[in-house]
Amino acid sequence: MDDSHAMPAMLRSLLMTSAIALALTACERADNETTMSTDTTPSQATSQDTAPAAADPSGLAANPLMVASELPFQAPPFDRIDDGHYQPAIEEGMRQHLAQVREIADNAEPPTFANTIQALERSGELLTRAASVFFAMTSANTNPELQAAEQALAPKLAEHSDTIYLDATLFGRVKALYDQREQLDLTDEQRFVLERSHEHFVRAGALLDADSQAELRTLNSEESSLTTAFSNKLLAATKAAGVLVDDVARLDGLDQAAITAAAEAATADGHDGQWLLVLQNTTQQPVLAALSDRELRQQVMAASLERAQQDDDNDTRATIQRLAELRARKAQLLGHANYAAWSIADQMAGSPDVALKLLTDTVPAATARARAELARIQAVVDAQGGGFQAGAADWDHYAEQVRKAEYDLDEAQIRPYFELDRVLHDGVFYAAELLYGITARERTDLPVYHPDVRVFDIFDADGSQLALFYLDPFQRESKMGGAWMGNFVEQNGLTGTLPVIYNVENYTKPADGQPALLSFDDTTTLFHEYGHALHGMFSKTTYPSVAGTNVPRDFVEYPSQFNEHWALHPQVFANYARHHETGEPMPQELVDKIVRARTFNQGYATTEYLAAALLDMAWHTLPADDASKDVEAFEREALARYNVDLPAVPPRYRSNYFSHVWGGGYAAGYYAYFAAEVLDHDTFQWFGENGGLTRENGQVFRDKILAIGHSRDLAQAYRDFRGKEPSVEPLLQHRGLK
Ligand SMILES: [Zn+2]
Question: Are the beta carbons of 420 and 516 closer than 8 angstroms?
Fold first, then answer.
């Protein structure tokens, strides 16, 4: 399950919901939500020698972000941008944007679509340009100076958004247009953009009276403080919950690299001569697969499950209790039955009932499969004379043994067949050419922000230029974990700009002169991120706020997850999976193992995900008059109510450390990963029903889904593409649950 959010979630949700068309990103595949540490070393020296002009104290005249780049596609002039350029450009961008908004709001002419909605869409050009590059850098190539700028800018950007959305004069013009939209001569896209713009204002509280708006502002501010407090407490609690071991013999099963890392972690924490097993975000911990000491496994699992509920300063329960209560009240003020109803109203699902049904419908098959997997694990325990009932702490340890016995799949055997350049050109680009007719050609004349970054021209089927594509493949200290996509420049029908898109991965960098050999998971990630890139590149909307990947969060992972399917398509796979030295295709026996291993452990993976997603829905469907709950009792009751209370399969995140919903932007939204997965498998089924991988099918999908951004209702767009409602069946089959 692909479910992390590596982008700074608060900033992302803030900017994504504003009229500022800032398509920061779409995704990440890796499983670690990484917050950037404050001691990250910059991997690239930047020049600090730009002397500020005397009459221009902030140096704006010499700041390359102040004007549109003259490079092809307005590509960022990285050879001229210094770290010190971002903050002044963004602050000036906010100032200019507010002045533009003021002018739109105070226009003496009666409101028209052109002088109000279209003018808003055109506003904030400098802010969008500077912030797009800035947030790309704070994620992929950061350093203490950029981190300090990010911290300084966060509250200012939050206030900027409030100033626009609670501007009564501006809303008056939007509402006047909205109320007479039936009489206006608008294109379908214009009408949809008007409706969405109005909805943004209403969702932000523009229709409320002054007292309610004041209460809402207070609640928003408290929510923002509490989510930050939750994240800080959780960070400290997770660190404190690491398990210290004083006898290396207890680490039996771990490889030497892991033991060394544990020793270094202990030393760094002031426990020289011991070993520290550091916790990661999810309930399951990677070390559990290897550790043979059962008592230690149970100790690690208990530390994971009970973190942040130790009755100390890092206990998150009071924060959660208040957040649930506060969100329910916020939803009530905004006229909704509960927070989930407010949150999901502008998503593809539309209502909590739809999202809930998707999850609960899958529970029986997922838990049945998990129980069967547990029986298989118990058989291994019994065969080895274990003499105990396998639990959550034992699962990965014995599942790994089952995996080896049943699939015999060895990473070292398959990596030589997945060489990065070959996967990129003969796999990812090849599939896109077969499906959509587009081709890629590398160019080396454009400046990049790090020597590892590569740039490609993307050409359409008729040979015209479609986009620029940047690929930043390798892990380094200045980069967050995970993988993601974003835009330096967004497709914009008003200004005619074409997309400049980047994909960031975290592959291990090979030694000089050695090939970069990927795992199959890495390979799939390359297809995944390029799926987001295609969504951005094929965008053909007029208005930037609805372009490309500016879609609801329960839709955004659909094009990317869909593109993963081609990684294992026989024609595509045979074209790229060749031995990097001999050029030989991968032996069929190995291919079969990869295919069969896909459904391994899916009962556990699906059940733990569903349990967390249902927990999120339970918390956020509480009514305002009954929202203050004892955290543990409520969690127990909710898991039992939805039949996901399997002792051996705890939720992927328990309430006390569920940072997606209490510290990030996924409150009432954790279901979104599953919702997008339903669409991607249903779409792959459509391809199968219509002749599979063909140029014709690719074109239909491109025109009806990938090109439209959010310029129309997406549930209807999907029905128009598919000819019916999406079905969950193909997903269940793929996961081996049917
Ligand atoms: Zn993604």
Answer: yes
Q: Are residues 257 and 111 in the same domain?
A: no
CA 249 and chain centroid, separation: 39
Q: What is the pLDDT of residues 308-330, one digit of tens each?
A: 999 999 999 999 999 999 999 99
Whether pTM exceeds 0.70? yes
Least confident segment among 22-36, 255-269, 567-581: 22-36
Helix 188-203 and helix 168-179: axis angle, to 10°? 140
Residue type present at position 703: D
Residue 671 predicted with pLDDT over 50: yes
Residue 318: how many other CB atoms lie within 10 Å: 12
| pLDDT tens digits, 340-394 | 999 999 999 999 999 999 999 999 999 999 999 999 999 999 999 999 999 999 9
pLDDT at 568: 96
Q: Which of 305, 339, 356 is the last residue of a domain?
A: 305
* pLDDT (tens digit per residue) in 128-147: 999 999 999 999 999 999 98
Cα 3 to middle of ligand 1, angstroms: 9
Per the CB < 8 A criterion, the answer to whether 26 and 676 are in contact is no
Based on the domain organization, do 143 and 186 belong to the same domain? yes
Average pLDDT of span 527-542: 97
HEC string of 111-167 equals CCHHHHHHHHHHCCHHHHHHHHHHHHHHHHCCCHHHHHHHHHHHHHHHHHHHHHHCC
CA distance 697 to 689: 10
Residues with active-site annotation: 529
Same domain for 188 and 262, yes or no, is no
pLDDT tens, position by position, 157-166: 878 987 899 8
With a CB cutoff of 8 Å and minimum separation 6, the contacts of 150 are 8, 11, 134, 138
Separation of alpha carbons 733 and 738, rounded Å: 5
Considering the domain architecture, whether residues 156 and 71 belong to the same structural domain is answered as yes
- 284 φ/ψ angles, rounded to the nearest 5 degrees: -70, 145
Q: Is 188 part of any domain?
A: yes
Residues 155 and 300 in one domain: no
Residue 5 Cα to ligand 1 midpoint, Å, equals 9
In a domain, 79, yes or no: yes
Q: How far does residue 230's CA lie from ligand 1's centre (Å)?
A: 25
CA distance 657 to 682: 33
Any domain includes 368: no
Q: Catalogue the E-assigned strands of 297-428.
A: none
CA of 561 to the centre of ligand 1 (A): 7
In a domain, 417, yes or no: no
CA atoms within 13 A on the CB side of 333: 25
Residues spanned by the domain of 260: 241-305
* Same domain flag for 288 and 213: no
pLDDT at position 55 is: 64
User: What distance in Å separates the CA atoms of residue 605 and residue 29, rounded to the nearest whole number?
Assistant: 15
- C-alpha–C-alpha distance, residues 293 and 298, integer Å: 9
- Is the per-residue pLDDT at 472 higher than 70? yes
Domain end marker among 217, 250, 277:
217
Distance (Å, whole) CA 672 – CA 666:
9
Distance between CA 522 and CA 12 in Å, rounded? 25
How many angstroms does the Cα of residue 726 sit away from the middle of ligand 1?
A: 20
Identify whether residues 83 and 193 lie together within a single domain: yes
